[in-house]
Model the fold of this input.
Amino acid sequence: MSSIPAAKPLIDPFGRGIDYLRVSVTDRCDFRCVYCMAEEMTFLPKADLLTLEELDRMCSAFVGLGVRKLRLTGGEPLVRRNIMSLIESLSRHLRTGALDELTLTTNGSQLAKHAEALAACGVKRVNVSLDTLDPGKFLAITRWGKFAQVMDGIAAAKAAGIRVKINAVALKGVNDDEFDTLIGWCGKHGHDLTFIEVMPMGDIGGETRLDQYLPLSLVRADLANRWTLTEIDHRTGGPARYVRVEETGGRIGFITPLTHNFCESCNRVRLTCTGTLYMCLGQEDAADLRAPLRQSESDAPLIAAIEEAIGRKPKGHDFIIDRRHNQPAVARHMSVTGG
Ligand code: SAM
Ligand code: SF4
Done:
């Protein structure tokens, strides 16, 4: 009887097990959110991108090394040509039980088109970024987004049986008057909701992060004046801390890299669409995995490069936003590593 050798788990120098890989499958996007990108962006030449077959090989090597959760992100993952063929192919790891979860973070613009196929591939949850329920404000934040299309996408995902978690970046003076509305809407439609602090990543043109930054510690304290928030132990493998909203029965997560550093429990690494592995969202250090991938048909050089990279995963990030630190902490945009 043949036996499959148990995967050797990836453990970093601080004893953290790495079982979660986020993959930015493209740096391109059909939106230009003000906190994420400048309106005029120079994207990578298509020739620099890993092919879908190479992305599959990369992801599968990580699965072989004990990664149990894969999240595809971007840029906008669903604008990459033929992305469904990659998702279909990766879904084999769900069927073998090697992977617990295959999921994506999306702006929702293409979700109506793909929801049923995603569900058929075993995608059970998606994160959809939606910072406002006001169509005018939505256009101002995303610059190019179409609100109705995103609403249709969210409805299609729900109809296909996919759980939707809404991600909202908390933006001072932009959507901070709408948090109650978002909580009520998510409660009504059965979506969990996560608030995210603005992170200082990449140049965003004329805007400054200091103008946008709203500490979630303040948001949470304010919400507690009107909602009964009960701490719960819910974990999704990501960095959010959750409360239950007793009035709606829904959950709210808070991702607070700036007001509460969550690095001590970090279990993830991030791969870009060119095959660069970032061991920390908030640090520049990275490892090139494309060269070892292309060097040989065998995965041995790639696996060695992954293990070496995990061996230098840093302890944490150094994000700060204040008057003296009003420059991006890292030069790359969130769309390079996908958040
Ligand atoms: N395009 C997809 C989307 O918007 O969901 C996936 C990629 S996007 C970069 C992933 C998440 O990062 C989104 O929820 C977005 O709101 C968030 N994001 C982008 N730039 C950010 C920043 N500077 N600080 C905090 N969150 C950011
Ligand atoms: Fe595109 Fe997502 Fe960035 Fe908005 S947050 S510009 S949707 S990658």
